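Hey, can you fold this one?
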Amino acid sequence: MTAWIKSSYNKLVFEKPWLVIGLLAALVCLFGWYAQYFRLDASADSLLLEGDEELEYSREINERYGVRDTVLVAYTPEGALFSREELNRLAVLRDELLMVDRVVSVDSILNVPVFGDTRLTAISEDYQTVMDPETDLAAAREEMTNSPVFRNAVISPDGQTAALQVSFEIDERARALLQRRSELRSREQGLTPPEREELETVEEEYASYSVLTAERQHETITRIRGILDGYRNGVQIYLGGAPMIADDLVTFVRGDLSTFSFGVLAFIIIALGLIFRRPRWVALPLACCAVAGIVVVGILGLMDWRVTVVSSNFISLLLIITISLTVHLMVRYRELRNENEQADHKTLVRDSVNTMFLPCLYTALTTAVAFGSLIVSRISPIIAFGWMMVMGVATALVVVFTLFPSVVGLLHDDKRILSLNSGQGLTAALAKLTDKLGKSILLIFTLVLVFSVAGLSQLRVENSFIDYFLEDTEIYQGMRLFDEKLGGTLSFDVVVNLAEGTGGNDDGFDDGFDDGFDDAFGDGNPDDGGADTDAYWFTADRMQTIEAIHQYLDSDPQTGKVLSFGAVIELAEQLNDNEPIDSFMWGVLYSRLPDSIRDTVLRPFVSVADNQVRFNVRVIESAVDLNRNELLRRVESGVEEQFGFEDEQVEVTGILVLYNNVLQSLFQSQILTLGVVLFAIMIMFLLLFRSLVIATICIIPNIVAAGLVLGIMGWLSIPLDIMTITIAAISVGIGVDNTIHYMHRFRTAFPHYNNYRDTMYYCHNSIARAMYYTSLTIIAGFSILALSNFVPTIVFGLLTSTAMLVALTGSLTLLPQLLITFKPLGKETRQSKM
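Sure. Predicted structure:
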């Protein structure tokens, strides 16, 4: 079977090269068409754990309390904010924002009530605002900056910055699709055939519709930014909020893909030109990269397999793998040409491909295994990234071993003998260094391993979105301003299920007297058409409990603004001359509360039907000592202990909780991923080299490489997050290529030399050059990523370059010294000539 495949391959590639080129051109055209459907996805779903129950609970809470997507505008004028001129200008901005599609409301200091000397019992629908001519603006400023409801919500404590909360309409179609999908998924095992078909249809509809919603969201954010740009004269304006951050993540990644792709390409062209000094040896790797890239991107577009922020670097990694395979073929061809000047050109091409196919196949398989190990993760985007890279490696292998021999076979013979000494200096020096240091190399790498383990112990699983951006970028400065002046932007919810009877009829709704006030509440019959019977729920004890929980959450140093009904209770007490409010008065107030105020301060935080209250807690993202997991655990357990609630009565939820669940699974996932990949590669080495000793020797440099990269992250305080988790798999995937190429050449050459030192020198002067060229090209290309404004791109570029350097060094020093020390290929029969 193997012989038939080899024979068929040789006949096709070497006898019908134009047919192969034509087929590849057809594939490029086909998948090039579908490449237009290639998309980035930065939705919340793309950063969540597969099957996370918190996601469904979060959606349930959002629906119950009518939570909308919102963005915040921070508005800081050079002059006085509370002046007629500035307020009128702010009003014009508000009106323009209200004209944007999907914007349903804009809340700000312009529409919140100014109570002045109004007594609590005198509150009505006709409240005063700062836009009323008779309003005392100085007094209004003082009132708002001291209001427990409005301070840090619509106004900064210093009264200089106003916040406009821009709320978007709820997408009922997306909500309906999600609800139906969740319902069908929850009983997936017991679905009938028609229901299974419906589930597939709903999933396809939601996937397609989410593309439209993402594009619409981007257009909306762009439109809002365009409006804000018209008001920057004399005003400092920043945009914030989760939708804006998600949109900016995609924008930054998309910008880096387009901007730095050309930079990386330019650096690679320069590196290949300096090394090989012939146009054909520059054009061929680029052609292979272009074909492989177009095919893979087209497949992703055809399958509607969206690339997330996590997997956005897959194109760069595909570039690495494709160039590595191509350079190894090029170097082998040139080696054979230099060794035999009279050999037939096509014979040299055939020999180059045939001698390099097995080691390249093994490197592709082990690299695919390294990236495939990411599939064991529970994190959806990381799983998708693993599958993408497996597909990309397979595509690169097929493209290189069909396009390269077909094109080179058609080219005229390169009669000029080209020196390969450009890399010989370094590789030969490493051979001499390894020979000179001897077993000291083992001690050095043992110390490196100790250094790595020490760094690993400092590796932390934490990050904040603000750290994704450089300090001089607008988004970073905006998020810091929101943290410092407006209580933060990103938040989580604390949901408290009050026990039945909490704050029951403590002071007399049923006192046995007919005082004539029943008409204020109705007779308790929900069908009587009278006033709201929910008024009976608002008892003094309940209100005191809600207020106490609010104050407890607000007192935590790592929480920012807390939005809840507790702030309204504090405000009500202020308006009541700081006197307690009894249950009877709460009932009266609830019945008289205008609908406009209920929609703003009550319904988003209180569910009478469920006897439940919601506290929305913003987090200070720029806090140096922020640890989300500790904060969330502290808040949840603290509320339970302080107020005597059972564990099931208090839940924390929201996007930050969901993201924290991902973060906390990362460390376990990283250990599991590394364990799986190293075990799988160990098995691959056993199958390849048929020796446990050789397999163990080959796995050691890869352990050191992965450990050192992670150790460096620990020492440099680079957190392990949803993006950097892939670095370990990348370093192993890259390092294993060098190990296999070197070991394969070493084992092939050893019978000729029968001496480990001489074989090492030979390998360093042959296969090591291809390893050096590949590493040099990639390091040169990816160094340009350090110029990005997006920190994950910078980290990826620097860590990938570091992984390449560490993998090369380990393969050319530690690996040969292990071979010399343990002699896994048998005893030497000759003395060294070196």
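Residues 193-229 form the longest helix (37 residues). Let me know if you want another pass with a different chain boundary.
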